[in-house]
Design brief:
- It is built from 12 helices and 21 strands.
- The protein is α/β, with parallel strands linked by helices.
- The chain folds into 3 domains: 119 residues, no CATH class; 131 residues, Rossmann fold, CATH 3.40.50; 166 residues, 2-Layer Sandwich (Dihydrodipicolinate Reductase, domain 2), CATH 3.30.360.
- The chain is globular and about 65 Å long.
Length: 481
Amino acid sequence: MTVNDDSFTNWKNREEIAESMIPIIGKLHRERDVTVLLHSRSLVNKSVVSILKTHRFARQIAGEELSVTETLPFLKALTELDLGPSQIDIGMLAATYKADDRGLTVEAFTAEAVAGATGANKIERGEGRDVVLYGFGRIGRLVARLLIEKSGSGTGLRLRAIVVRGGGDQDIVKRASLLRRDSIHGQFQGTITVDEANSTINANGNAIKVIYANDPSEVDYTAYGIKNAILIDNTGKWRDREGLSGHLRPGIDKVVLTAPGKGDVPNIVHGVNHDTLKPDERILSCASCTTNAIVPPLKAMDDEFGVERGHVETVHSFTNDQNLLDNYHKSERRGRSAPLNMVITETGAASAVAKALPDLKARITGSSIRVPVPDVSIAILNLQLKRDTNREEVLDYLRDVSLTSPLRRQIDFITAPDAVSSDFIGSRHASIVDAGALKVEGDNAILYLWYDNEFGYSCQVIRVVQHVSGVEYPTYPAPAV
């Protein structure tokens, strides 16, 4: 047998193993609300090839490819446990088991590592929490996709309605079409049908009522059977407490803004300050996509090296706020053609750092340039540290943060020397450290942080909503503190 034959046979064997994992992962998700992860990447609803690629990605973090032959025993061990709702990272199980020298069986080690999600310790599944989307633009539709994807057994978050202004004939058909197909993020994973008579979009079994209103005061959500719901405002029209309070109508319990909040509205970056939210807080913001991209790595760097001061320059994809061709705009430069120009503009991300990281005393400044790409941006974070370091130390530290720390869902890490912006479309992390671009000299470090300003940010929004709704399930093995 030739080397090529050996390689092909090995690939087919791994395909067969990955294929056997799919029904196990699906059953755990549907019946027990267990999300199986691999180094913080969900394996739910993934194809055979996608599962194999996710295993291969581990080499960029841990230095070597992770084989499905290593993770399958842990996945099988999970099926024998009395698991409650949780997120279980079989990549971390395999890595920690390899480092454990007690001689435990895979079954015993797994039972110990996920003990907080089993038996008397497990979370009991509730009835779920209603969610309403106010606005159905770029972020609104991606948040809708994520809510539908995560509906699981139906006992978590339930997208019940979207609120939009009427748009004329076949409005609901056109909105369903925009949910079904996206020029950047591709096809919706599932089926979508429209019931025009009842003003309903049915997506993967989720009946979503389309409510037409020009103002929050026009809607009584209880008339649609919606109760105790979390409303996600994707319009950005109201950003202070007074304006957002207009959403607190019958049937709505909390309001989450997908834009930077003003005044005393808490700006929350999941993974950094979400645990500071008071249970009785009814209005909050998820800050901006750029704030979510820079705050987690900024916190990580401050924790380890200390930060004296910093500057962030964002090279940001253009957005719907800009004009396709030169035309009137209330902002001087944003009126110029977005697909034809680099456009200098302002960013509030630097000033928003203080809200998310009040203990950070360093002064952070920022500026932004919009460039002719439709999605994925990069933040260049230039930091003066409180101590000297070197490139190897910073790389090792950030790699470890992305793998084992509480920020592992926010910070990703890539070593690919040829990575470009389109490679990060669909990333679920708030930011991705580009190892090859990192520069360190003495007490100065310059981090290059990619981020999908649409999808990665939408994932952060969902994490905040899960937290405030009480369906943010714990992750096992627990990350290092």
